[in-house]
Design a protein that fits this description.
The structure is a single chain. Helix 9 links the parallel strand 6 and strand 7. The strands form 2 sheets. The protein has a 6-stranded parallel beta sheet with strand order 5-4-1-6-7-8. It folds into 2 domains: 140 residues, 3-Layer(aba) Sandwich (Rossmann fold); 68 residues. The chain has 10 helices and 8 strands. Helix 1 packs across helix 4, helix 2 packs across helix 3 and helix 3 crosses helix 4. It is an alpha/beta fold and 224 residues long. Helix content is 42%, strand content 14%.
């Protein structure tokens, strides 16, 4: 018998990943605004300071481009224009399931209610869920950006728990980020199965379970 009555999943980096060619996408941003490219996608991602605390995606990306422009001596560019171009060329339907994701969801469904708690807004995350044909599988979906408080704040978790009608200690959260998934779930009182990056250690965080693959979830839920 499982120790949990329900399972909640993170989305990006846990259940799915982008399949769009990031190099081509990055080049298209500069082509769209008529500027010579500088930096690289990996540099931009590193320059972003975690997910935004509100639904200001342009401002969030613009801050990253501004940091990148300063490093490359390109203070002549408009970082907000680049940010807007990035949102235009980004294809939210270009996603694929991570290995074992569907099996993990199916295992969770056999255990009880399932849901998603994601930091992204509905307009960016719903197309991913629809493309992956997952939407109908979830009993609750919470978009943190649309609520004004994102992980590691507890609001999105609290809302999901209220929808499920379950106490926090009976709901397992599965996520890949220590700073947002593990910290946020623990702040809300949920036990966590952390999907570990091979190059990352939990450090000061203490997830109840550390898994290398989503295929391990069925064992945690007592299906094996």
């Amino acid at each position: 018998m499982s120790d949990f009555d329900a399972v909640l999943f993170d989305l990006d980096g846990t259940l799915c990943r982008r399949t769009q060619d990031t190099g081509a996408m990055y080049a298209a941003v500069f082509e769209r605004v008529g500027e010579e490219p500088f930096g690289a996608p990996a540099e931009l991602w590193a320059a972003l300071d975690g997910p935004p605390d509100h639904d200001d995606w342009i401002g969030y990306l613009g801050a990253g481009f501004a940091r990148l422009a300063a490093r490359h001596g390109r203070t002549d560019v408009d970082p907000l224009e680049l940010a807007e171009a990035l949102t235009t060329v980004s294809d939210e339907t270009a996603v694929g399931l991570l290995p074992g994701a569907r099996e993990a969801i199916d295992s969770a469904i056999e255990n009880g209610p399932v849901g998603v708690v994601t930091n992204g807004p509905h307009r960016r995350q719903q197309p991913k869920l629809d493309t992956l044909e997952l939407t109908h599988l979830f009993d609750v979906i919470v978009y943190g950006a649309d609520r004004g408080r994102q992980k590691p704040h507890t609001d999105a978790f609290d809302h999901a728990l209220a929808e499920l009608g379950l106490p926090a200690d009976r709901v397992l959260y599965v996520g890949n980020s220590l700073e947002y998934d593990v910290a946020g779930a623990h702040n809300a009182g949920l036990p966590v199965a952390w999907l570990r990056d091979p190059d990352e250690e939990p450090g000061a965080y203490s997830p109840e379970y550390v898994i290398e693959s989503l295929a391990e979830l069925s064992g945690i839920l007592g299906d094996e």
